[in-house]
Design goal:
Helix content: under 10%
Order of helices and strands: HEEEEEEEEEEEEEEEEEEEEEEEEEEEE
Structural class: mainly beta
Number of helices: 1
Radius of gyration: 19 Å
Shape: globular
Low-confidence stretches: 1-19, 253-258
Protein backbone atom coordinates (compact mmCIF):
# COMPACT_ATOMS: atom_id res chain seq x y z
CA UNK A 1 0.00 0.00 0.00
CA UNK A 2 2.88 2.34 0.85
CA UNK A 3 4.55 1.68 -2.51
CA UNK A 4 1.30 2.33 -4.37
CA UNK A 5 0.70 5.55 -2.41
CA UNK A 6 4.24 6.71 -3.20
CA UNK A 7 3.74 5.89 -6.88
CA UNK A 8 0.50 7.88 -7.03
CA UNK A 9 2.10 10.82 -5.24
CA UNK A 10 4.99 10.86 -7.70
CA UNK A 11 2.61 10.60 -10.64
CA UNK A 12 0.43 13.42 -9.37
CA UNK A 13 3.48 15.63 -8.90
CA UNK A 14 4.66 14.88 -12.44
CA UNK A 15 1.22 15.64 -13.84
CA UNK A 16 1.08 18.94 -11.99
CA UNK A 17 4.47 20.08 -13.29
CA UNK A 18 3.73 22.37 -16.21
CA UNK A 19 5.08 21.36 -19.59
CA UNK A 20 4.85 24.94 -20.79
CA UNK A 21 7.95 26.28 -19.06
CA UNK A 22 10.66 24.07 -20.57
CA UNK A 23 12.92 24.91 -23.49
CA UNK A 24 11.63 22.60 -26.25
CA UNK A 25 14.51 23.39 -28.59
CA UNK A 26 16.96 21.33 -26.56
CA UNK A 27 19.29 24.28 -26.01
CA UNK A 28 18.55 23.96 -22.29
CA UNK A 29 18.74 20.21 -21.62
CA UNK A 30 16.19 18.44 -19.42
CA UNK A 31 17.33 16.08 -16.70
CA UNK A 32 16.80 12.37 -17.56
CA UNK A 33 14.36 10.75 -17.46
CA UNK A 34 12.30 13.32 -19.34
CA UNK A 35 9.77 14.70 -16.82
CA UNK A 36 7.05 14.94 -19.47
CA UNK A 37 7.14 11.22 -20.28
CA UNK A 38 4.86 9.93 -17.52
CA UNK A 39 4.07 6.37 -16.47
CA UNK A 40 0.41 6.16 -15.49
CA UNK A 41 0.97 2.44 -14.96
CA UNK A 42 4.35 0.86 -14.11
CA UNK A 43 4.10 -1.33 -17.24
CA UNK A 44 4.78 1.75 -19.36
CA UNK A 45 8.39 1.81 -18.15
CA UNK A 46 9.44 -0.93 -20.58
CA UNK A 47 8.33 1.23 -23.53
CA UNK A 48 10.31 4.28 -22.40
CA UNK A 49 13.89 5.05 -23.40
CA UNK A 50 15.16 6.61 -20.19
CA UNK A 51 17.91 8.70 -21.76
CA UNK A 52 15.85 10.17 -24.59
CA UNK A 53 14.31 13.67 -24.51
CA UNK A 54 11.25 15.07 -26.23
CA UNK A 55 12.46 17.54 -28.85
CA UNK A 56 10.66 20.11 -30.94
CA UNK A 57 12.07 19.74 -34.45
CA UNK A 58 10.20 22.54 -36.18
CA UNK A 59 7.52 25.13 -35.57
CA UNK A 60 5.68 27.79 -37.57
CA UNK A 61 2.82 25.82 -39.15
CA UNK A 62 -0.83 26.74 -38.65
CA UNK A 63 -2.22 23.22 -38.13
CA UNK A 64 0.27 20.37 -38.53
CA UNK A 65 -1.19 16.97 -39.39
CA UNK A 66 -0.68 13.61 -41.08
CA UNK A 67 2.97 12.59 -40.40
CA UNK A 68 4.18 9.61 -42.43
CA UNK A 69 7.61 8.02 -42.69
CA UNK A 70 9.23 7.14 -46.02
CA UNK A 71 11.69 4.33 -45.34
CA UNK A 72 13.39 4.25 -48.74
CA UNK A 73 13.86 8.02 -48.80
CA UNK A 74 14.66 8.28 -45.07
CA UNK A 75 12.43 11.31 -44.53
CA UNK A 76 9.24 12.38 -42.81
CA UNK A 77 6.36 14.07 -44.61
CA UNK A 78 3.45 15.88 -42.96
CA UNK A 79 0.74 18.41 -43.82
CA UNK A 80 0.28 22.05 -42.86
CA UNK A 81 -3.40 22.09 -43.81
CA UNK A 82 -4.30 25.83 -43.67
CA UNK A 83 -1.09 26.78 -45.46
CA UNK A 84 -1.95 24.23 -48.17
CA UNK A 85 1.49 22.64 -48.01
CA UNK A 86 3.20 19.33 -47.39
CA UNK A 87 6.40 19.54 -45.37
CA UNK A 88 9.48 17.30 -45.27
CA UNK A 89 12.01 16.65 -42.50
CA UNK A 90 15.46 15.16 -43.24
CA UNK A 91 16.96 13.54 -40.12
CA UNK A 92 20.57 13.57 -41.34
CA UNK A 93 20.86 17.33 -40.87
CA UNK A 94 17.49 18.39 -39.42
CA UNK A 95 16.57 20.20 -42.63
CA UNK A 96 12.89 21.13 -43.02
CA UNK A 97 11.45 22.33 -46.31
CA UNK A 98 8.21 22.54 -48.25
CA UNK A 99 7.77 19.32 -50.19
CA UNK A 100 4.66 20.42 -52.08
CA UNK A 101 2.85 23.73 -52.42
CA UNK A 102 -0.82 23.72 -53.45
CA UNK A 103 -1.36 20.33 -51.81
CA UNK A 104 -5.17 20.65 -51.91
CA UNK A 105 -5.26 21.07 -48.13
CA UNK A 106 -4.14 17.49 -47.64
CA UNK A 107 -4.64 16.10 -44.13
CA UNK A 108 -3.38 12.54 -43.59
CA UNK A 109 -0.54 10.93 -45.52
CA UNK A 110 0.83 7.43 -45.79
CA UNK A 111 3.02 5.34 -48.11
CA UNK A 112 2.13 2.11 -49.85
CA UNK A 113 4.36 -0.95 -50.05
CA UNK A 114 5.96 0.42 -53.24
CA UNK A 115 7.01 3.67 -51.55
CA UNK A 116 4.35 5.79 -53.25
CA UNK A 117 2.80 8.56 -51.17
CA UNK A 118 -0.95 8.50 -50.60
CA UNK A 119 -2.65 11.68 -49.39
CA UNK A 120 -6.14 12.44 -48.18
CA UNK A 121 -7.22 15.80 -49.56
CA UNK A 122 -9.76 18.18 -48.08
CA UNK A 123 -10.10 20.75 -50.87
CA UNK A 124 -10.78 18.22 -53.65
CA UNK A 125 -12.58 15.64 -51.44
CA UNK A 126 -10.38 12.85 -52.76
CA UNK A 127 -7.72 10.24 -52.02
CA UNK A 128 -4.69 10.49 -54.31
CA UNK A 129 -1.48 8.61 -54.94
CA UNK A 130 1.72 10.30 -56.10
CA UNK A 131 3.32 8.03 -58.66
CA UNK A 132 7.07 7.56 -58.91
CA UNK A 133 7.13 9.56 -62.16
CA UNK A 134 5.42 12.52 -60.46
CA UNK A 135 1.96 11.99 -61.86
CA UNK A 136 -1.11 11.92 -59.61
CA UNK A 137 -3.60 9.05 -59.58
CA UNK A 138 -7.03 9.68 -58.06
CA UNK A 139 -7.91 6.61 -56.00
CA UNK A 140 -11.28 7.83 -54.72
CA UNK A 141 -13.42 10.96 -54.94
CA UNK A 142 -16.99 9.61 -54.93
CA UNK A 143 -19.18 6.94 -53.35
CA UNK A 144 -22.61 5.96 -54.63
CA UNK A 145 -22.27 8.73 -57.19
CA UNK A 146 -21.84 11.44 -54.56
CA UNK A 147 -18.66 13.40 -53.71
CA UNK A 148 -16.84 12.27 -50.59
CA UNK A 149 -17.05 14.63 -47.62
CA UNK A 150 -13.31 15.34 -47.14
CA UNK A 151 -11.03 12.28 -46.67
CA UNK A 152 -9.01 12.60 -43.48
CA UNK A 153 -6.70 9.72 -42.57
CA UNK A 154 -5.98 6.15 -43.62
CA UNK A 155 -3.72 3.13 -43.78
CA UNK A 156 -2.54 0.62 -46.37
CA UNK A 157 -3.36 -3.08 -45.92
CA UNK A 158 -0.91 -5.81 -47.06
CA UNK A 159 -3.45 -6.89 -49.70
CA UNK A 160 -2.87 -3.54 -51.41
CA UNK A 161 -6.13 -1.93 -50.33
CA UNK A 162 -6.35 1.53 -48.78
CA UNK A 163 -8.68 2.06 -45.82
CA UNK A 164 -9.65 5.65 -45.00
CA UNK A 165 -11.94 7.86 -42.94
CA UNK A 166 -14.22 10.58 -44.28
CA UNK A 167 -15.52 12.83 -41.46
CA UNK A 168 -15.83 15.95 -43.59
CA UNK A 169 -13.90 18.50 -41.54
CA UNK A 170 -12.29 20.02 -44.62
CA UNK A 171 -15.69 20.80 -46.12
CA UNK A 172 -17.02 22.40 -42.95
CA UNK A 173 -14.76 25.47 -43.24
CA UNK A 174 -12.67 27.38 -45.75
CA UNK A 175 -9.69 27.42 -43.37
CA UNK A 176 -8.80 23.78 -44.09
CA UNK A 177 -10.48 23.25 -47.46
CA UNK A 178 -13.56 24.46 -49.28
CA UNK A 179 -16.74 24.94 -47.31
CA UNK A 180 -19.60 22.92 -48.75
CA UNK A 181 -22.41 20.51 -48.04
CA UNK A 182 -21.71 17.01 -46.74
CA UNK A 183 -23.67 14.66 -49.00
CA UNK A 184 -22.71 11.36 -47.37
CA UNK A 185 -22.99 9.93 -43.88
CA UNK A 186 -19.56 10.09 -42.22
CA UNK A 187 -17.94 6.68 -42.72
CA UNK A 188 -14.87 4.48 -43.14
CA UNK A 189 -14.13 3.17 -46.64
CA UNK A 190 -11.92 0.59 -48.37
CA UNK A 191 -10.35 1.08 -51.80
CA UNK A 192 -9.67 -2.29 -53.40
CA UNK A 193 -6.59 -2.67 -55.66
CA UNK A 194 -9.12 -3.07 -58.49
CA UNK A 195 -10.42 0.43 -57.74
CA UNK A 196 -13.73 -0.63 -56.19
CA UNK A 197 -14.76 1.47 -53.19
CA UNK A 198 -16.82 -0.12 -50.41
CA UNK A 199 -18.16 1.28 -47.17
CA UNK A 200 -16.66 -0.46 -44.13
CA UNK A 201 -18.72 1.15 -41.37
CA UNK A 202 -20.66 4.31 -40.64
CA UNK A 203 -21.32 3.73 -36.93
CA UNK A 204 -19.04 6.59 -35.85
CA UNK A 205 -20.05 10.22 -35.59
CA UNK A 206 -16.75 11.63 -36.90
CA UNK A 207 -14.33 8.82 -37.88
CA UNK A 208 -10.84 10.30 -37.84
CA UNK A 209 -7.52 8.54 -37.16
CA UNK A 210 -7.26 4.93 -38.37
CA UNK A 211 -4.71 2.17 -37.89
CA UNK A 212 -4.42 -1.62 -37.85
CA UNK A 213 -3.16 -3.95 -35.13
CA UNK A 214 0.24 -5.54 -35.78
CA UNK A 215 -1.38 -8.65 -37.32
CA UNK A 216 -4.03 -6.66 -39.23
CA UNK A 217 -6.79 -8.59 -37.48
CA UNK A 218 -8.11 -5.45 -35.80
CA UNK A 219 -8.89 -1.96 -37.03
CA UNK A 220 -8.87 1.00 -34.64
CA UNK A 221 -10.69 4.25 -35.43
CA UNK A 222 -10.72 7.45 -33.37
CA UNK A 223 -14.10 9.20 -33.16
CA UNK A 224 -13.70 12.96 -32.78
CA UNK A 225 -17.45 13.47 -32.62
CA UNK A 226 -19.35 13.68 -29.35
CA UNK A 227 -18.42 10.16 -28.12
CA UNK A 228 -14.67 11.04 -27.85
CA UNK A 229 -13.75 7.37 -28.05
CA UNK A 230 -11.49 5.01 -29.96
CA UNK A 231 -13.39 2.04 -31.38
CA UNK A 232 -11.94 -1.34 -32.34
CA UNK A 233 -13.26 -3.75 -34.98
CA UNK A 234 -12.44 -7.35 -35.88
CA UNK A 235 -11.25 -7.49 -39.49
CA UNK A 236 -12.64 -10.33 -41.58
CA UNK A 237 -11.22 -10.14 -45.08
CA UNK A 238 -12.61 -7.01 -46.72
CA UNK A 239 -15.14 -6.36 -43.94
CA UNK A 240 -15.27 -5.76 -40.19
CA UNK A 241 -17.49 -6.99 -37.38
CA UNK A 242 -19.48 -4.50 -35.34
CA UNK A 243 -17.10 -2.38 -33.31
CA UNK A 244 -16.86 -1.73 -29.62
CA UNK A 245 -15.33 1.00 -27.47
CA UNK A 246 -11.62 0.42 -26.91
CA UNK A 247 -10.82 3.66 -25.07
CA UNK A 248 -13.03 6.41 -23.68
CA UNK A 249 -11.37 9.77 -23.08
CA UNK A 250 -14.12 10.86 -20.71
CA UNK A 251 -13.34 7.98 -18.32
CA UNK A 252 -10.32 6.20 -16.91
CA UNK A 253 -7.41 6.80 -14.57
CA UNK A 254 -7.79 10.08 -12.73
CA UNK A 255 -5.81 11.70 -9.90
CA UNK A 256 -7.12 15.25 -10.02
CA UNK A 257 -10.12 16.56 -11.96
CA UNK A 258 -9.07 17.06 -15.57
CA UNK A 259 -5.85 15.08 -15.26
CA UNK A 260 -5.39 12.38 -17.95
CA UNK A 261 -9.14 12.20 -18.60
CA UNK A 262 -11.68 14.69 -19.86
CA UNK A 263 -14.93 14.22 -17.95
CA UNK A 264 -16.62 17.10 -19.82
CA UNK A 265 -16.03 15.44 -23.18
CA UNK A 266 -14.28 18.37 -24.86
CA UNK A 267 -11.04 16.62 -25.76
CA UNK A 268 -10.20 13.31 -27.36
CA UNK A 269 -7.92 11.50 -29.79
CA UNK A 270 -7.24 12.21 -33.45
CA UNK A 271 -4.29 10.23 -34.90
CA UNK A 272 -3.40 6.72 -33.72
CA UNK A 273 -0.68 4.10 -34.30
CA UNK A 274 0.15 0.64 -32.91
CA UNK A 275 3.56 -0.58 -31.82
CA UNK A 276 4.81 -4.15 -32.36
CA UNK A 277 3.46 -5.28 -28.96
CA UNK A 278 -0.03 -4.08 -29.85
CA UNK A 279 -0.03 -1.00 -27.63
CA UNK A 280 -1.99 1.92 -29.09
CA UNK A 281 -0.37 5.37 -29.15
CA UNK A 282 -3.02 8.07 -29.47
CA UNK A 283 -2.76 11.84 -29.93
CA UNK A 284 -4.92 13.97 -27.65
CA UNK A 285 -5.74 17.62 -27.14
CA UNK A 286 -8.07 20.57 -26.64
CA UNK A 287 -7.93 20.36 -22.82
CA UNK A 288 -4.54 21.76 -21.77
CA UNK A 289 -1.57 20.87 -19.61
CA UNK A 290 -1.90 17.37 -18.15
CA UNK A 291 -4.01 16.05 -21.04
CA UNK A 292 -2.62 17.32 -24.35
CA UNK A 293 0.00 15.05 -25.87
CA UNK A 294 0.13 11.31 -26.56
CA UNK A 295 -1.83 8.79 -24.49
CA UNK A 296 -0.66 5.17 -24.60
CA UNK A 297 -3.01 2.22 -24.11
CA UNK A 298 -2.11 -1.45 -23.71
CA UNK A 299 -3.87 -4.04 -25.95
CA UNK A 300 -6.65 -4.39 -23.36
CA UNK A 301 -7.47 -0.67 -23.56
CA UNK A 302 -5.90 0.36 -20.26
CA UNK A 303 -4.21 3.76 -20.28
CA UNK A 304 -0.60 3.19 -19.19
CA UNK A 305 1.38 6.27 -20.26
CA UNK A 306 1.33 9.92 -21.24
CA UNK A 307 3.74 12.04 -23.27
CA UNK A 308 2.89 15.57 -22.21
CA UNK A 309 3.19 18.33 -24.83
CA UNK A 310 2.56 22.08 -24.69
CA UNK A 311 0.24 22.07 -27.72
CA UNK A 312 -2.93 20.27 -28.80
CA UNK A 313 -1.70 17.12 -30.48
CA UNK A 314 -3.10 16.07 -33.85
CA UNK A 315 -1.30 12.97 -35.08
CA UNK A 316 1.78 10.76 -34.88
CA UNK A 317 3.75 7.99 -36.55
CA UNK A 318 6.77 5.79 -35.93
CA UNK A 319 9.79 6.33 -38.13
CA UNK A 320 13.54 6.17 -38.48
CA UNK A 321 15.51 3.18 -39.82
CA UNK A 322 14.47 1.10 -36.79
CA UNK A 323 10.93 2.53 -36.52
CA UNK A 324 11.73 3.38 -32.89
CA UNK A 325 11.40 7.14 -33.26
CA UNK A 326 8.02 8.68 -32.56
CA UNK A 327 7.15 11.74 -34.67
CA UNK A 328 4.29 13.89 -33.37
CA UNK A 329 2.43 16.75 -35.04
CA UNK A 330 0.93 19.18 -32.53
CA UNK A 331 -0.84 22.40 -33.57
CA UNK A 332 2.01 24.56 -34.90
CA UNK A 333 4.95 22.20 -34.29
CA UNK A 334 6.64 18.88 -35.00
CA UNK A 335 8.03 16.90 -32.03
CA UNK A 336 10.01 13.69 -31.71
CA UNK A 337 10.91 11.12 -29.05
CA UNK A 338 12.92 7.90 -29.24
CA UNK A 339 11.06 5.04 -27.55
CA UNK A 340 11.90 1.50 -26.47
CA UNK A 341 9.60 -0.19 -28.97
CA UNK A 342 8.96 -0.11 -32.70
CA UNK A 343 6.06 0.85 -34.90
CA UNK A 344 4.00 -2.13 -36.00
CA UNK A 345 4.01 -1.19 -39.69
CA UNK A 346 6.22 0.40 -42.29
CA UNK A 347 4.53 3.79 -42.09
Amino acid sequence: MTDRRAFLTTLASAAAASAWGRDWSGQTPERYPDPDVIAIDPSFAKLVQGNAPIRRLHTGMLWAEGPAWNGSGNYLVWSDIPNNAQMRYLPEDGHVSVLRNQANNSNGNTFDLHGRQISFEHATRRVVRYELDGKITVLADKFDGKPLNAPNDGAVHPDGSVWFTDPGYGSMMDYEGNKGELLLKEAVYRIDPSGEITKITDDLEKPNGLCFSPDYKKMYVADTGAPKTIRVYEVEGTKVKAGKVFADFTKGYNIDPGTFVDPKGKGGSDGIRCDVEGNLWASAGWIGDGFDGVHVFNPEGKRIGLIKLPETTSNLCFGGPKRNRLFITASQSLYTLYVNTRGAHHC
